Amino acid sequence: MKASPFQYHRPQTREELGALLARLENAKILAGGQSLMPMMNLRVIAPDHLIDINRIPDLAGIRETAEGIEIGAMTRQADVLVSPIVRSRLPLLARALEHVGHIQTRARGTIGGSCCHLDPSAEQPAMCAALDAEFIVSGPDGRRTIPAGEWFEGLLQSALGDQELLEGLRFKPWGKGHGHGFAEYARRHGDFAIAGGAALLEAGKDGRITRAALLSFGVESAPRRLPDAESSLIGQHIDSLDAKPAVAAARALDAMEDVQVTADYRRHLAGVLIGRALEEARTTLERRS
Ligand SMILES: Cc1cc2nc3c(=O)[nH]c(=O)nc-3n(C[C@H](O)[C@H](O)[C@H](O)COP(=O)(O)OP(=O)(O)OC[C@H]3O[C@@H](n4cnc5c(N)ncnc54)[C@H](O)[C@@H]3O)c2cc1C
After folding, report:
1. For 91-150, how does the pLDDT look when each residue is reduced to its tens digit (9 = 90+)?
2. Which string of DSSP letters, residue by residue, matches 45-109?
3. Domains in the chain, start-ordered, CATH in brackets?
4. DSSP H/E element including 117
5. How far is the CA of 206 from the centre of ligand 1 (A)?
6. Using an 8 Å Cβ cutoff, are 252 and 157 in contact?
7. Which of 104, 114, 239, 255 has the most CB atoms in a 10 Å sphere around its CB?
């Protein structure tokens, strides 16, 4: 199938983009097109207007600022994956990106596009939730910052307004030497995950956990942090971490059922994968002397 007819617009400035978003009805922003075009071709959606933001300056790039690490929405997934800043300061994000699609899709697909599309199995928005990223958004009422906890409103539904643009993401990196772990299950490499898990750990000089983040994705309609299990890790020694609360919390999620797996099997996977992610975070945590 092919997309239903639409008008194509290619603004060159933020002002032109703002005017188009304000004027046009049933319009969609086009970033890398790796999710939008398949959805249009399958006629899941039928926008009357496509607004291509590939020519808008300053929407791509990765920089360290006093407020954290900022990644522009139009930064290609391939560039995020190889960025030395991301690899050293946000290793969990780099680790997850290895599992996103294929070289070809990562060359076009953008981190912002994935965070706006919000497939429940998408690794990038999930890692934003694990890392407590902030979403920087601009629209007719100016610029606003949305914390990760308020970004996910449901299946394929973010907090972004119809006339708003996601400009970029801001991350506050975890401490040097923090532990990070990622695990997912997909039928073939590059397929969307059936379920996944991620973990972050920090410890004091005595080897006791001082900070923890645990997250399951691909299980419910949006990624889910596991706050009680995170709290249960605080104070534990890295040599004897009890993973049971994390596994139990992931298995208690309200798992989706689909043509691939039953809800029971997805819950089982969620438990296994959070356990693996936690173990990887434990082993990557650098011991302080
Ligand atoms: C074969 C294949 C395999 C894939 N495998 C995976 C995978 O394993 N994991 C995974 O996470 N993804 C996967 N993807 C999806 C891929 O990562 C997409 O690139 C991503 O979901 C969307 O990014 P995009 O830049 O292509 O956005 P687009 O497709 O252009 O846009 C997606 C949506 O976001 C909106 N949008 C985009 N940018 C902005 C912005 N800055 N502000 C406001 N709205 C915006 C668009 O209007 C649209 O609604 C796969 C895709 C393909 C084709």
Report:
1. 999 999 999 999 999 999 999 999 999 999 999 999 999 999 999 999 999 999 999 999
2. ---SEEEE-TTSTTSS-EEEETTEEEEETT-BHHHHHH-HHHHHH-HHHHHHHTTSS-HHHHHH-
3. 7-52 (3.30.43.10), 63-171 (3.30.465.10), 179-284 (3.30.390.50)
4. helix 111-117
5. 43
6. no
7. 114
Q: What are phi and psi of 241, to 5 degrees?
A: -70, 135
Give the span between the Cα atoms of 53 and 148, in whole angstroms. Answer: 23
Rounded-to-integer distance, Cα 181 and Cα 138, Å:
33
Please provide the size of the chain in residues: 289
Tokens standing for 254? 């309200």
φ, ψ (nearest 5 deg) of residue 171: -120, 140
First-to-last alpha carbon distance for the chain, in angstroms, is 61
Are the C-beta atoms of 198 and 215 separated by less than 8 Å?
yes
| Exposed / middle / buried, residue 146 (Cβ in 10 Å: 0-12, 13-18, 19+) | middle
- Measured from the CA of 38, which atom of ligand 1 is nearest? 53
Spatial distance between the Cα atoms of 73 and 62, rounded to a whole number of angstroms = 10
Q: CB-based contacts of 35: which residues, under 8 Å, 6+ apart?
A: 109, 113, 114, 117, 119
CB 263 within 8 A of CB 218: no
Residue range 143-187, pLDDT digits in tens:
999 999 999 999 999 999 999 999 999 999 999 999 999 999 999
Residues with CB under 6 A from ligand 1: 28-36, 73, 100-101, 105, 109-110, 112-114, 116-117, 119, 122-124, 160, 165-166, 190, 192
